[in-house]
């Protein structure tokens, strides 16, 4: 098992587990841990219902991760936009001051 595998199950083939501990794993990349027993609700499901139930859980994880990533991107874009705006204003002020000094 890799140093970043916090689970006691063997690694899934093709899933990198060398993520350092302390770095949060996106929900959509968490390992699917097989259950030892099913809940009463799951026992009453057909196989198709159980698969769809778990597909919905995984879909919700991907959606939550995607929404979080979009939010992070939008916040960072706003920071960059503000920085560019501040630089533009400063450049404009410097240009006006330089032009006024040249006229004196």
TrEMBL record:
Protein name per the record: Uncharacterized protein
């Amino acid at each position: 098992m890799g140093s970043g595998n916090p689970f006691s199950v063997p690694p899934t083939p093709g899933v990198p587990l060398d993520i350092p501990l302390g770095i949060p794993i996106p929900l959509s990349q968490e390992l699917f841990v097989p259950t030892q027993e099913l809940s009463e609700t799951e026992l009453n499901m057909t196989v198709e219902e159980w698969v769809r139930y778990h597909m919905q859980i995984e879909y919700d994880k991907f959606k939550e991760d995607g929404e979080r990533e979009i939010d992070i991107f939008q916040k960072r874009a706003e920071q960059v936009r503000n920085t560019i705006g501040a630089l533009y204003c400063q450049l404009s002020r410097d240009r006006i001051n330089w032009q006024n000094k040249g006229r004196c």
